[in-house]
TrEMBL record, chains A, B:
Keywords carried by this UniProt record: DNA-binding, Transcription, Transcription regulation
Species: Sinosporangium album
PANTHER family: HTH-TYPE TRANSCRIPTIONAL REGULATOR RUTR (PTHR30055), MYCOFACTOCIN BIOSYNTHESIS TRANSCRIPTIONAL REGULATOR MFTR-RELATED (PTHR30055:SF238)
Domain of life: Bacteria
Record protein name field: Regulatory protein, tetR family
Pfam families attached to this UniProt entry: TetR_N (PF00440)
InterPro entries in the cross-refs: Homeodomain-like_sf (IPR009057), HTH-type_TetR-like_transc_reg (IPR050109), HTH_TetR (IPR001647)
Keyword Amino-acid biosynthesis attached: no
Length: 215, 215
DNA sequence: AGCAAATATTGCGTGCACGCAAGTTTGCGT
DNA sequence: ACGCAAACTTGCGTGCACGCAATATTTGCT
């Protein structure tokens, strides 16, 4: 189950997709994210502007794709790779940390934060883990016929999004919120604490699945 | 804390907002959702096309807004209205069911399903419960400094979105999924079962809050 | 090798979102 | 009552997303 579909065609498609997103990233770093028109990206990648939109449905998507590569799909794979006896909550947390702790280019993070539109696109891209993740969770729970797996996957995606948003946010002015100001910690910490809130739900779902199997 | 801000200005703004969304709905029902241009809506509401986009940031938003009115903000209010001794999970479920069980116009549901773009816009609109809900949950948990409330609110929003999507979906062809085909039930049932998956997480958060208060 | 079906690319046309810089209306202090 | 400042509306210009139909490329088959 590696590369479904035919050969040369798919190869070329992947090539242009990569060409597009790399061109997009290069131009964005050079001229600033707001000074890159999709026509520029298309030209730099050697395709027509119309073709750009056959691959990406917004100007920002290509830039974001260059930064996140295929992280989204790898998360689900990483979950599936964990042994079945590991607690679901742990499997998810570890898989996500694993994927979001790659060697990061500092310039790219700054780039993404430079434009609100880009930041939103980046956060939206994280939502792409939802469907693969739902499949992976469904696999573990063997729980077809109940929306549980889908809801949990969506919740995990939401938690990731929240952690990423917090991470990207400027510490903000400490406008007396009545309490102390929490300095937005490291990304792994943020992800951990966001996912922690969901652990009980994950445990419960897993327990239910176990009981269903036993009876 | 009813109508913050000044008087006549806000009144007029609300009036045009309502005029716009009602015009949008009326035209969409008359001509079909894909045959309504934003210029038409603006004209019907007596404002310039540019002004339309000061109120709604997409063509579909006005139509959706006409159908959902202010349901999104009312959900949070409904949660806050429940007595504090009610289980958080129950308060949320009841509040949501209460808001999504209004007398519904059948035509409007059909309308929304008529166009994929419109359906997506409708589901996106449901995400608007997230922020008010986060505030309401935060209130109950008194849990500032932890992303828990935000994560739970986002998860609830996601669950609602999933339930609504399922509800809107055509029963689909029964392509042997190995098991039996589940006929998408009534909206209340769908909402209940989607939210059920999150109950353990809500309970746990509540329990933690209680312990924090006692010590 | 050659051909037909499947699939990708491209140009064109349309409608849309939104920044910007006038012009207009409303609110408020004096 | 007056007038200034803040907030809202409008027109314009630009870039973008995407449906459609024509064209080009790849593939599998014989």
């Amino acid at each position: 189950m590696t590369t479904r579909r035919t050969g040369l065609r798919e190869q070329k498609k992947q090539a242009t997709r990569v060409a597009l997103r790399e061109a997009a990233l290069r131009l964005a770093l050079k001229d600033g994210p707001d000074n890159v028109r999709v026509d520029d990206i298309a030209e730099a990648a050697g395709v027509s502007p119309r073709t750009y939109n056959n691959y990406f449905s917004s100007r920002e998507q290509a830039i974001v794709a260059a930064v996140t590569a295929e992280r989204e799909s790898r998360v689900a794979t990483a979950v599936a790779a964990r042994p079945a006896h590991v607690r679901l909550a742990d499997a998810l947390t570890e898989a996500i940390l694993e994927q979001y702790t790659e060697p990061r280019d500092h310039d790219e993070v700054l780039l993404i934060n430079a434009s609100p539109t880009l930041r939103d696109a980046f956060l939206d891209a994280a939502a792409a883990i939802e469907h693969p993740l739902a499949a992976a969770i469904d696999q573990r729970l063997g729980d077809t016929g109940t929306p549980t797996a889908r809801v949990l996957a969506a919740s995990v995606a939401a938690a990731v999004r929240i952690a990423l948003r917090q991470w990207l946010q400027p510490p903000a002015a400490p406008l007396a919120t009545g309490g102390l100001v929490v300095p937005s910690g490291s990304l792994p910490d943020l992800l951990r604490s966001a996912l922690a809130a969901l652990a009980p739900a994950l445990d419960a779902a897993e327990e239910q699945a176990r009981q269903r199997l036993q009876q």
